[in-house]
UniProtKB/TrEMBL annotation:
Annotated Hcy-binding domain residues: 2-310
Source organism, top-level taxon: Bacteria
One Gene Ontology biological process: methylation
GO molecular function (one): methyltransferase activity
Residues spanning the membrane: none
Protein name: Homocysteine S-methyltransferase
């Protein structure tokens, strides 16, 4: 297991992976379910391992686990008890580690590469609601209530031995601070990145300026990187510029492909092209991001195009 504090405490570019759920859909999975990609943990876990492996081959330095939508509450709605829910969450970490270890076992894959990390995905409270709340963030919950929600899942994921946590698509400042405080007070040896979802060039989905939310995380040493994900590419450069002014931490970004999502019909519109995504990423690098990947609708081909130039920085 690598020391994530050491890995993130330098300026070497890191290639993040791309989407899990939409890649599983491309491979024939039906994710029309409140559990989203976590459903595949139950039905076809081998596919998740395969996607992780393909992202490593494409050039990713980090695998983000298929636990974004996984929570005790969400699993309980499906009649899955706490023991089995814990097993499934930990399986998400195990699958990513198995893919990483299989990739790294081939000496040819090690040339010019760091040993990849596994980041356990911690989705926002709104992801559990499965109603698009992660793109609004107005939960009506206190910081303490959000800590109480995230605590058991984080404990389960950390027990499986990931390198760090990926607290992602966070729509509001109160949830980000709740996660950072939870780590500081109860999981002092864990490292994490915290990444926000944003609605425009300056503000979180909930409306708080990104710069203010990023600044609020500055005192928390366990937060090794901050940034933006699950956001339209056109907003990324100005958001990163604002984040760079507010923080001395590593900046990361992994935006959507550029296609537009309709939460009413749950469909995507538009098109994307790997080279165009990689070309846009040059702007994000110039704006300060040193950890770059993709979120919804991005593919191993996008990551391959991205890694082709980012690793040469």
């Amino acid at each position: 297991m690598q020391d994530p504090f050491a890995v993130f405490d330098n300026t070497t570019p890191i290639v993040l992976d791309g989407a899990m759920a939409s890649e599983l859909e491309r491979r024939g999975c039906d994710l029309n379910d409140a559990l989203w990609s976590a459903r595949v943990l139950i039905e076809q876990p081998q596919l998740i391992r395969d996607v992780h492996y393909d992202y490593f081959v494409a050039g990713a330095d980090v695998a983000t686990t298929a636990s974004y939508q996984a929570s005790f509450t969400g699993f309980a709605r499906r009649g899955i008890d706490e023991v089995e829910a814990t097993r499934l969450m930990q399986l998400s970490v195990q699958l990513a580690c198995e893919a990483r270890d299989a990739f790294w076992a081939d000496a040819h894959n090690r040339v010019g590469r760091m040993r990849p990390l596994v980041a356990a995905s911690v989705g926002p409270y709104g992801a559990m609601l499965a109603d698009g709340s992660e793109y609004r963030g107005h939960y009506g919950l206190s910081e303490q209530q959000l800590m109480d929600f995230h605590r058991p899942r984080i404990a389960a994921l950390l027990a499986a031995g990931p390198d760090l946590l990926a607290c992602e698509t966070i729509p509001c400042q109160v949830e980000a601070v709740a996660l950072a405080r939870l780590l500081q007070e109860e999981f002092p040896h864990a490292a994490a990145w915290i990444s926000f979802s944003c609605r425009d060039d300056a503000n979180l989905s909930e409306g708080t300026p990104l710069a203010a939310a990023i600044a609020a995380l500055e005192p928390f040493a366990q937060v090794v990187a901050v940034g933006v994900n699950c956001t339209a590419p056109r907003h990324i450069a100005p958001l990163l510029q604002a984040a760079a002014q507010a923080s001395g931490k590593r900046l990361l970004t992994y935006p959507n492909s550029g296609e537009a999502y309709d939460p009413v019909t749950k469909t995507w519109h538009g098109s994307s092209e790997p080279q165009a995504f990689a070309d846009a990423a040059r702007q994000w690098r110039a704006a300060g991001a040193s950890c770059i990947g993709g979120c919804c609708r991005t593919t191993p081909e996008d990551i391959r195009a991205l890694a082709g130039w980012l690793r040469g920085q």
